[in-house]
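Figure 3 (text version): structure tokens given as input.
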């Protein structure tokens, strides 16, 4: 199940890499060129390491909510999360370096004025700065929580906050990564192609269809959240 879950972002991230850097080929060239997007390797590395890192911290948070604390399990989860923070930071820096080379439009929208760039909008770099600050807070909190487990104790507030911080960072980074193309759909260097160029006016989508899709997404998200709440908070999951 874990492998199948990780295969989903592996496929979708290639689509996003194509939106960030249009890779194509013409007649007479190797068709594999179209599948060799230079943005993809750092993007997928950053995604997969981040997914496992967040999973480790969320696992520690869930274990910390139990009445019967599994100190060894919490220590392993926190230790794994801390160890993955290092390659995650390296993958993030690598991804940003690649964006600077192939997607300067996205890079300057993410980096903002503090890093010497002139962004086209102020919608995204504040969220990036906040995500970096929360990452520092996560590392500090996780080190403290992990240290207490080495003493044979569990600090519930610190341990539980690691999963919350990790999820907050995830939301901010996804917002920055996907939104920094605005207002374009495809990016080409310092400019891009707006989504209006891909609109098919011959096949109109009625507003009711859009509202139905949005409401169904919210409904399934609510069902998942309620199920998670009863499983974790109400302790429908078995405890030792």
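Below: residues designed for each position.
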């Amino acid at each position: 199940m874990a492998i199948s879950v990780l295969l989903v972002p592996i496929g979708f991230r290639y689509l996003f890499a194509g939106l960030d850097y249009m890779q194509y080929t013409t007649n007479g060239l190797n068709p594999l060129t179209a599948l060799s997007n230079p943005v993809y390797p750092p993007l997928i590395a950053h995604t997969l390491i981040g997914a496992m890192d967040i999973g480790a911290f969320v696992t520690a948070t869930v274990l910390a909510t139990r009445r019967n604390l599994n100190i060894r399990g919490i220590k392993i989860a926190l230790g794994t999360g801390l160890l993955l923070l290092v390659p995650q930071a390296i993958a993030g820096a690598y991804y940003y370096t690649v964006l600077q080379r192939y997607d300067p439009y996205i890079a300057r929208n993410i980096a903002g004025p503090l890093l010497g760039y002139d962004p086209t909008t102020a919608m995204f770099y504040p969220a990036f700065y906040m995500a970096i600050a929360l990452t520092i807070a996560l590392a500090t909190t996780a080190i403290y929580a992990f240290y207490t487990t080495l003493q044979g104790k569990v600090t519930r507030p610190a341990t539980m906050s690691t999963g919350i911080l990790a999820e907050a960072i995830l939301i901010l980074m996804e917002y920055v990564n996907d939104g920094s193309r605005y207002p374009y759909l495809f990016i080409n260097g310092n400019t891009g192609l707006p989504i209006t160029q891909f609109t098919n006016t011959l096949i109109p989508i009625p507003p009711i269809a859009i509202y139905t899709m949005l409401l169904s997404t919210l409904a399934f998200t609510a069902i998942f959240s309620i199920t998670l709440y009863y499983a974790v908070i109400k302790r429908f999951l078995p405890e030792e």
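The chain has two domains: 2-196, 200-240.
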